[in-house]
Amino acid sequence: MNNLFIFYLLIINILGFIFMYIDKEKAKKHKWRISENTLIILSLLGGSVGSFIGMNKFRHKTKHIKFKYGIPLIIIFQIIFIYLIVNK
User: 23-45: per-residue pLDDT in tens?
Assistant: First the structure.
């Protein structure tokens, strides 16, 4: 796999993790929040594992159906996609 792609996945997953932390902290302080669509798009762009880890670490969005089931579903699709690309 291309080193640039691996670097991209590393960065986007770190961002997913950080965005979950930031949104949780803002929620605790009743401040402006990161939109759910932004969090989902970040996951779709490859940050699903980081978002999932952040969700569970910070106990954030874990009761929201679209996150509780959506993020793991995105991870499954991304694993399948990467598998198909690598084994073509």
Answer: 999 999 999 999 999 999 999 99
